[in-house]
Amino acid sequence: MEVPILKQGDILIATVQAALTDSDLLQLRRALVEKVVKARARGIIIDLTAMDVMDSFASRTLREMAHMIRLRGAETVIVGIQPDVAFAMVQLGLSMGGVTTALDLEEGLEYLHRRFTRMS
Amino acid sequence: MAAGVENEINVPIASDHDVVVARHKGRGLATELGFSASDSTLVATAISELARNIVLYAGRGEIVLRTTHNSNRPGVMVVARDKGPGIASIEQALRDGYSTSGSLGLGLPGVRRLVDEFEIVSEVGQGTTVTVRKWKG
Q: Would you call B42 and A91 a contact, using CB atoms and an 8 Å cutoff?
């Protein structure tokens, strides 16, 4: 299941639409890290609203992805982690590390636009 | 069928795709039993971790899902079984931060926190069986 990546101005939006296997997650990471440079993106939003399980592999892969993207000069915001998923993550002992999170796509976009305004 | 066992689903595990299938079936079973969405997510997450351990350490194995009963409460029982290398020190494997595969090492201690009952039997060279139960809240 490939995750579609949309470009909106200098922001890339990846919307997870169904359960992802480990290889799907790695493929998403590869695609995003490549696309950041090609699209000259400054911000990336990963929308996890449809993700029903976040286990140790998924959260590690997303965390690493955000760090790689930061090294490429852009910022990642993870949005849409569902309350039940968040609860399970905490029980499991997982954290998103230093990765910025926001409630939903709208809040994520707002956050990035604020950041860009401050930086310019 | 053994007493108290009503339903059994066997999911062979050999790839990351099977991990998704197993957790999906586990969530379905929990939901069928009337588990809350939150508890069903805990069950699915535990299965995801256990199934991934099978792929990662043993290459292949199986996840068996069963409905079970504890006095008057229904529950989901998950058996994760493989004939992999086994775990030399279970005590160490149950400690947060321990891993032999370069992964996070949160696997087993994390799974233990997601469920109500947790048992592990492992023998080096023979394989590992992890059995967990979660009761309807």
A: yes
Residue among B61, B30, B33 nearest B45 (CA): B30
Q: Chain B partners of A55 at a C-beta cutoff of 8 Å?
A: 45, 48-49, 52
**Short-list B78, B88, B91, CA closest to B123:** B88
CATH-assigned architecture of domain A5-119: 2-Layer Sandwich (3.30)
In chain A, the residue whose alpha carbon lies closest to the alpha carbon of B18 is: A21
Min Cα separation B1/chain A (Å): 31
Residues of B in contact with A87 (CB under 8 A): 38, 41-42
The fold for domain B7-135 equals Heat Shock Protein 90 (3.30.565)
Give me the residue label for tokens 């004939």: B83
From the CA of A66, how many Å to the nearest CA of chain B? 17
Residue A96's pLDDT band (boundaries 50, 70, 90)? confident
| pLDDT, tens digit, 9 for 90 and up, residues B20-41 | 999 999 999 999 999 999 999 9
- Residue ranges with strand state E in B31-125: 61-70, 73-82, 117-123
- Yes or no: say if B109 and B91 are a contact pair by the CB < 8 Å rule: no
Residues of A in Cβ contact (< 8 Å) with B19:
21-22
Query: Three-class SS of residue B26?
Result: helix
